[in-house]
Amino acid sequence: MTPTPIGSLKPLCLQTPLVVDGAPACSILVPDDAPYVRLGQQVAEAIKNALGAEPRVCTDASDVDPTSESVITLGQMLNNRIIERLYWNHYVYIDSAC
Fold it and tell me: H helices within the chain, ranges in order?
C-alpha cells in the first residue's frame, strides 16, 4: 500500500502568545501541590511584571483549553495530565526519573 502524499503543510506556530491586547492569553497548569502552586504563582507574577497581565494558575487540567489558549505546564507526567498526554505521545520525556 502506497502512503498518501502530503499535499500541503500546516503553518508553523513560531510564537506563543502569553498576553494579547493587555489581557492574559495563557494559563499555567500546575500539580495540586503547594510548592508547585507557589511556583506557578511566581511564573504568573513574572509574566505580569514583564507583559502587564497575569495569567491564572490552575491545578485541574479541565480548567484549561490548549486548543484556544497557550498553556504553561509545570510538573511531570505523574502529576500533570497534559504532560502525561504529551509523554505517552512521545512529545516530551518528563517523568519521575528526571
Answer: 34-51, 81-88
Task: Give CA–CA dist 33/27, Å, rounded.
Answer: 17
Asked whether the predicted pLDDT for residue 82 surpasses 90, the reply is yes
Give the phi and the psi of residue 13 in degrees, each rounded to 5.
Answer: -95, 95
Q: Which residue has the higher pLDDT, 15 or 56?
A: 56
43, amino acid identity: V
Give 22's contacts (C-beta < 8 A, 6+ positions apart): 52, 53
Chain centroid, CA 65 distance in Å: 9
How many other CB atoms are there within 10 angstroms of residue 65's CB atom?
10
User: What average pLDDT does the structure give for the chain?
Assistant: 93
